[in-house]
């Protein structure tokens, strides 16, 4: 696995597995366990909106969805279309009205997801995540390309057409841009897509490896892995640049492969994976000595994602026996927990807005699909019916 990890760092794009794009939504396959604090909801209203809301709430580990004719639900949720871009949600607990609110969106489906998020906040106090946008990789056209859509892949748009291996699409904080790695020129360079103008441009293209770019939470900086000779030598190192990719400053100085850098929620620190193992390390974003975290958790710790909603939590991919699963490392108590138990591999976790659920890649022999995982209950839902992987989430 060490050799595979190093190979990923240096030539990952050539090792990307084939995937296909989601078209008309996922299969809504849910596996998991119940909890004593689960909330039951009965969903009513316009037929099309009810179907979308039921699918959304069925992915949430806190909720149990009752049939519209069933009795005994903790809450009744009614969704009514007001216009082509507005939906009203009414929440009742028995005979008592809890809330009534009209939400707008880019479409009626988007307005429904925003209304459902409002219902989550009203009934559980948690942030909602249903209105998130998803960027992911598939090869519907026969080559790896990046697509964006809603979280449930009802409306998907292809945003690259480079016919080259691509890796790790990552959102800007305002949701207007994506950074990603592409082998368009046969070597790994970092590109940027302006989703408003529908244009892509080269972000960083030094001699050597350029990959793993992510924005800081405030959008003012970008962290990435570079191995250009004029940037510090052929060994991949972690760098931080301006938001435009200028003036990259080297953070790490160690003769080991590094990957997957990610800022802390306040932008003051960076977490990344480094050999041997790999294992996870945290260091100041301004420079300094890296400190290992998650020691003893697993022999393989990679692909970290630092939760903005729960700043003490880092989701990561860990080895569990012969498979890989999603783990969560708690910085507050210095303990880790394997939170997925899929029959296959669960990799590449990306936090959703509530700090409880993640999007992940469900991997079996010859198959890649996206799923939503509740890190508290282990409940997971496969949201794509055909090949897709490496999901990255943006929330309004």
TrEMBL record:
<protein>
    <recommendedName>
        <fullName>Biopolymer transporter Tol</fullName>
    </recommendedName>
</protein>
<dbReference type="InterPro" id="IPR011042">
    <property type="entry name" value="6-blade_b-propeller_TolB-like"/>
</dbReference>
<keyword id="KW-0732">Signal</keyword>
<feature type="signal peptide">
    <location>
        <begin position="1"/>
        <end position="21"/>
    </location>
</feature>
<dbReference type="Pfam" id="PF07676">
    <property type="entry name" value="PD40"/>
</dbReference>
<dbReference type="InterPro" id="IPR011659">
    <property type="entry name" value="WD40"/>
</dbReference>
<comment type="similarity">
    <text>Belongs to the TolB family.</text>
</comment>
């Amino acid at each position: 696995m060490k050799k595979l990890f190093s190979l990923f760092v240096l030539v990952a794009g050539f090792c990307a597995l084939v995937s296909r794009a989601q078209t008309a939504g996922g299969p809504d396959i849910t596996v998991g366990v119940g909890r004593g604090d689960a909330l039951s909801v009965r969903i009513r209203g316009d037929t099309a909106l009810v179907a979308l809301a039921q699918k959304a709430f069925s992915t949430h580990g806190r909720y149990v969805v009752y049939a519209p004719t069933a009795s005994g639900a903790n809450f009744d949720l009614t969704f009514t279309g007001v216009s082509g871009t507005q939906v009203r949600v009414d929440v009742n607990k028995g005979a008592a009205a809890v809330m009534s609110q009209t939400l707008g969106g880019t479409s009626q489906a988007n307005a429904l997801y925003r209304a459902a998020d409002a219902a989550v906040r009203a009934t559980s106090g948690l942030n909602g995540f249903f209105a998130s946008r998803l960027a992911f990789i598939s090869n519907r056209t026969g080559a790896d390309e990046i697509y964006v859509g809603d979280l449930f892949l009802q409306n998907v748009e292809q945003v690259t057409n480079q016919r080259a291996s691509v890796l790790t699409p990552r959102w800007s904080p305002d949701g207007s841009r994506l950074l990603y790695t592409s082998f368009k020129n046969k070597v790994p360079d970092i590109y940027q897509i302006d989703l408003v103008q529908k244009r892509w441009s080269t972000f960083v293209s030094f001699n050597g490896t350029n990959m793993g770019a992510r924005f800081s939470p405030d959008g003012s900086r970008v962290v990435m892995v570079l191995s250009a000779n004029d940037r510090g030598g052929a060994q991949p190192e972690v760098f931080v640049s301006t938001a435009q990719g200028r003036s990259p400053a080297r953070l790490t100085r160690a003769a080991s492969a590094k990957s997957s850098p990610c800022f802390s929620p306040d932008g003051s620190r960076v977490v990344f994976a480094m050999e041997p193992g790999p294992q996870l390390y945290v260091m100041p974003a301004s420079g300094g000595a890296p400190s290992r975290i998650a020691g003893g958790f697993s022999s393989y710790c990679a692909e970290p994602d630092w939760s903005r909603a729960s700043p003490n939590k880092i989701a990561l991919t860990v080895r569990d026996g012969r498979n890989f699963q999603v783990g969560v490392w708690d910085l507050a108590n210095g303990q880790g927990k394997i939170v997925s138990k899929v029959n296959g591999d669960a990799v590449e976790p990306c936090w959703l807005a509530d700090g409880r659920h993640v999007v992940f890649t469900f991997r079996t022999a010859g198959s890649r699909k996206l799923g939503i995982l509740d890190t508290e209950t282990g409940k997971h839902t496969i949201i794509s019916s055909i090949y897709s992987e490496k999901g990255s989430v943006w929330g309004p």
